[in-house]
């Protein structure tokens, strides 16, 4: 089942912050975050595993609330290069050995000068 | 350089024709995947393979076929049974390690039916 992302679109000015949320109705093993520029392949940002994690990557960080089956991606002091579509991908606990990654519909982020 | 190579980048298909998209990886990854992306939408899983000579259907396998005869290669055939094949196709691969199952994508192939 596809995870739900919100918001669908965000427009920011350079230097502003943004939060993108991802939620699932199923128990999750992990949450993955990717950024995609138009017509290009998605680029891996980070993965968060069950057990409740928080990770950071310069000014981009994320958290995973295992109990709520929710993850949030935090973009701090956004730069023009942050523009793109952000996808969360989820691996369910019930997948067993078949590690399927199911993606949300994406959040389009636009950073203006 | 290690990576995932997809070809062709752009492909046009006439209705009723089968076409095959190539995907090769030299990352020594065990698992490979095919995703389809329609404009403005997310990625949907077509097929995936955990090991050589084994593959499973994803959410939208109808009208597609795959093979996994070598670890490095996972070609996707779009058959004439796929009624709306125009889309962006992404191949990916992954390998389990202590950090989890990180998936890496190829550059994608654009398929247009004319």
What does it look like?
- The complex is a heterodimer of chains A (113) and B (114).
- Chain A is mainly beta and 113 residues long.
- Helices cover 0% and strands 57% of the residues of chain A.
- In chain A, strands 2, 4, 5, 9, 10 and 11 form a 6-stranded mixed sheet that branches. Chain A has a 5-stranded antiparallel sheet with strand order 1-3-8-7-6, with no helix packed on it.
- In chain A, strand 6 and strand 7 (60-65) form a beta hairpin.
- Chain A starts with a strand and ends with a strand.
- Chain B has 114 residues and is mainly beta.
- In chain B, 0% of the residues lie in helices and 55% in strands.
- In chain B, a hairpin with a 5-residue loop joins strand 4 and strand 5.
- The relative contact order of chain B is 0.33.
- The model of chain B has no long low-confidence stretch (mean pLDDT 91).
Oligomeric state of the chains present here: heterodimer
Order of helices and strands of chain A: EEEEEEEEEEE
Average pLDDT reading of chain A: 88
Looking at the structure, what is the overall shape of chain B? globular
Keyword list:
heterodimer, A: 113 residues, 6-stranded mixed beta sheet, 5-stranded antiparallel beta sheet, globular, B: 114 residues, mainly beta, 7-stranded mixed beta sheet, 4-stranded antiparallel beta sheet
What would you say about this model in short?
The complex is a heterodimer of chains A (113) and B (114). With 113 residues, chain A is mainly β.
List the helices and strands and how they pair.
The complex is a heterodimer of chains A (113) and B (114).
Chain A: E1 4-6, E2 9-13, E3 18-23, E4 28-36, E5 43-49, E6 53-57, E7 60-65, E8 70-75, E9 84-92, E10 102-103, E11 107-112
Parallel strand pairs in A: 2-11
Antiparallel strand pairs in A: 1-3, 3-8, 4-5, 4-9, 6-7, 7-8, 9-10, 9-11
Chain B: E1 4-7, E2 10-13, E3 19-25, E4 31-37, E5 43-51, E6 54-57, E7 64-66, E8 76-78, E9 87-97, E10 100-105, E11 109-113
Parallel strand pairs in B: 2-11
Antiparallel strand pairs in B: 1-3, 3-8, 4-5, 4-9, 5-6, 7-8, 9-10, 9-11
């Amino acid at each position: 089942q596809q995870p739900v992302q919100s918001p669908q679109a965000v427009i920011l000015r350079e230097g502003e912050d943004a939060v993108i949320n991802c939620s699932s109705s199923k128990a999750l093993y992990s949450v993955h975050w990717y950024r995609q520029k138009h017509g290009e392949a998605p680029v891996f940002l980070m993965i968060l595993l069950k057990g409740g994690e928080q990770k950071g990557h310069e000014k981009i960080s994320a958290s995973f609330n295992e109990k709520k089956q929710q993850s949030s991606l935090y973009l701090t002091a956004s730069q023009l290069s942050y523009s793109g579509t952000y996808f969360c991908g989820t691996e369910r606990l019930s997948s067993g050995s078949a590690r399927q990654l199911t993606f949300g519909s994406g959040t389009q982020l636009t950073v203006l000068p | 350089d290690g990576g995932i190579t997809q070809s062709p980048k752009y492909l046009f298909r006439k209705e009723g024709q089968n076409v095959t998209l190539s995907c090769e990886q030299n990352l020594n990854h065990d698992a490979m995947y095919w995703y389809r992306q329609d404009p403005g939408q997310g990625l949907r899983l077509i097929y995936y393979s955990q090991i050589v000579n084994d593959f499973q259907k994803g959410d939208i396998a109808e009208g597609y076929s795959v093979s996994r005869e070598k670890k490095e290669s996972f070609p996707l055939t779009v058959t004439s049974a796929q009624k709306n094949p125009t889309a962006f196709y992404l191949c990916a691969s992954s390998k389990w390690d202590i950090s989890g199952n990180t998936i890496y994508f190829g550059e994608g192939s654009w398929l247009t039916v004319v």
